[in-house]
Amino acid sequence: MISIQTTIETMTRQGTLSALLGAYCYAALLVAGPWIFTVIGLLWLGTAACNEPCPDLTVFRSIVIYNSMYALIVTSPLAFISGRYVSEQMHNGGHESVFGGLVLSLSIFGFLTLAFAVPFYLRATTLQAAEKIGSIQNVAMIGCSWLLIPFLGALRAYNAVLVAFGMGALSMLVLGHLLDDPSVASLLLAFNGGFAITNLILLATVVRRFGTRIKIDPGLLRRLGQNWELAAAGAAYALGLWIDKLIMWYAAPSGGLHVA
Q1: Packing angle between helix 129-154 and helix 158-178, nearest 10 degrees?
Q2: Which single residue of 130, 140, 173, 234 could bond 185 by disulfide (Cβ 3.0 to 4.6 Å)?
Q3: CA angle, corner 71, sides to 38 and 148, nearest 5?
């Protein structure tokens, strides 16, 4: 956070209106860049894919909304703890177990996805087989990106995060223009392809800095219990962002749309 503040203050001290505007735009992108680029990618994918209203686009957007909610609520506690752990490791000069911490976080998220998201799509939805596979892949892609972001934040690689999500949004624009009469499965494939590019850039940045040696810190699991308030804060943060949607979905079912 100190490095972000220093960069923005340097831009604002130039004394020009363009520098001041650039500083505020840069600050907004640093705070909400992943969200902004993801929404832009969805907008490009939807408008380029369908010239007229199409039901498959509604199903696709519903899947992305549910997956975004699930992924953020599940990964936020892990991301809060991971960000704290990586920052401590870098402060103490020990980088050997950082990649192992990433692997552990991804493994926990994978286990939770297998326990909840996979049965939901396989048992509780009326989607086609290809659509169910794409939906499961979609929740995995979104969740992995939210877990990778804290590691790049500890590296102060903020521009890498913006580039990763920007390239993902750009790929959605290109793939959306290539789709002709898109289906739910093809829309999911295009969206997942964009997030795969994003995750690849994020992961490559982490690997370039920390390597690929998997060394699990014996004290990491102990810290999960000691820093329980971080996990609670992460869960409260994610629920706070989505609680209004959850209340409306269940408290006002008459205005709802059943898609699958």
Answers
A1: 160
A2: 130
A3: 70
CA atoms of 89 and 96, how far apart (whole Å): 9
Q: 15 in the Ramachandran plot: left (φ > 0), alpha (ψ -120 to 50) or beta? A: left
What residue ranges of the chain have pLDDT lower than 50?
1-3
List C-alpha distances in Å: 177 to 48, 77, 131, 206. Answer: 5, 37, 20, 32
End-to-end, the C-alpha distance of the chain in Å comes to 43
- Sign of the Cα pseudo-torsion (156, 157, 161, 163, in order): positive
* Domain locations in the chain as residue ranges: 32-255
Closest listed residue to residue 31, CA positions, set 158, 145, 146, 170 = 158
The model carries a pTM of 0.84
* Cβ-contact 138, 147 below 8 angstroms: no
Give the orientation angle of helix 17-49 with respect to helix 184-210, to 10 degrees. Answer: 140
Q: Tell me which residue of 34, 9, 41, 3 sits closest to 22, measured CA to CA.
A: 9
Please state the separation of Cα 230 from the chain's center in Å: 19
Q: Which two tokens stand for residue 206?
A: 């982490």
Q: How many residues does the chain have?
A: 260
Angstrom distance (rounded) from CA 82 to CA 210: 15
179-230 pLDDT, tens digit each: 777 888 999 999 999 999 999 999 999 998 888 887 777 666 676 677 788 8
Helical segments of 124-157, H only? 129-154
Cβ-count burial 180-192 (b if 16+ within 10 Å, e if not): eebbbbbbbbbbb
